[in-house]
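2024-03-11 09:14:02 INFO worker-7 job=invfold-0412 stage=load source=structure_tokens
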């Protein structure tokens, strides 16, 4: 992972490929902010294992990673929402073992999640595939560069970092990808235009086997 905790790569997918993904995703049942558990769909698992994305994981992480989770984030005029500053610290697991810093198991859309230790989160990479261009007005991802290097942050430390830093807006064209650490402090605002912002967020790990009897679930 880069020292900033994120990287932007343009023109990974073509416009035609984005159109086809949007068409296929139209039949997927949505929640308020998009759709979870997308790896069960063949076209999504195929996308997650696309050689272009796997090459990105190798380029950024030093080795080819394994996809395990996919989510659709969808902002439109009818589904407009904001995300407060946070880190992504929960991982989907097959079963919970109370050891090694794992805690707070809970069910989300039928999948078991738990709060993961920093040591495991450092082994995760997320690729955010943009089916629409991300602009200043359609709720782009905002990040605090380098914040991932401090591990899991307490709420008061998050507030200090946000107030004392200059957030970066991650603007990327259609078909582009944002690669990021789940520990990177990030947020997004509401849309203030008529442009939708649809992102397929895919998470990758070094291995599905987490040790100590725990394994990542496919979600």
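2024-03-11 09:14:09 INFO worker-7 stage=emit residues=219
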């Amino acid at each position: 992972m880069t020292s900033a905790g994120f990287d932007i790569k343009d023109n990974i997918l073509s416009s035609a490929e984005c159109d086809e993904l949007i068409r296929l995703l139209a039949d997927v049942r949505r929640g308020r902010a998009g759709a979870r558990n997308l790896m069960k769909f063949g076209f999504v698992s195929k996308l997650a294992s696309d050689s272009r994305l796997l090459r990105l994981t190798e380029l950024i992480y030093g080795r080819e990673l394994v996809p395990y989770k996919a989510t659709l984030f969808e902002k439109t005029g009818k589904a407009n929402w904001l995300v407060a500053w946070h880190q992504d610290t929960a991982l989907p697991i097959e079963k919970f073992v109370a050891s090694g810093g794992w805690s707070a198991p809970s069910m989300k859309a039928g999948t078991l999640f738990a709060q993961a230790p920093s040591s495991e989160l450092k082994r995760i990479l997320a690729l955010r595939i943009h089916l629409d261009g991300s602009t200043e007005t359609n709720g782009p991802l905002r990040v605090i560069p380098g914040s991932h290097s401090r591990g899991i942050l307490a709420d008061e430390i998050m507030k200090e970092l946000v107030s004392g830093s200059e957030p970066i807006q991650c603007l990327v064209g259609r078909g582009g990808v944002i690669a990021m650490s789940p520990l990177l402090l990030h947020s997004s605002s509401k849309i203030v235009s008529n442009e939708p912002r649809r992102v397929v967020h895919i998470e990758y790990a070094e291995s599905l086997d987490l040790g100590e009897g725990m394994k990542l679930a496919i979600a």
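2024-03-11 09:14:09 INFO worker-7 stage=report msg="Helices lie at 15-25, 42-48, 51-61, 118-121, 155-163."
2024-03-11 09:14:10 INFO worker-7 job finished
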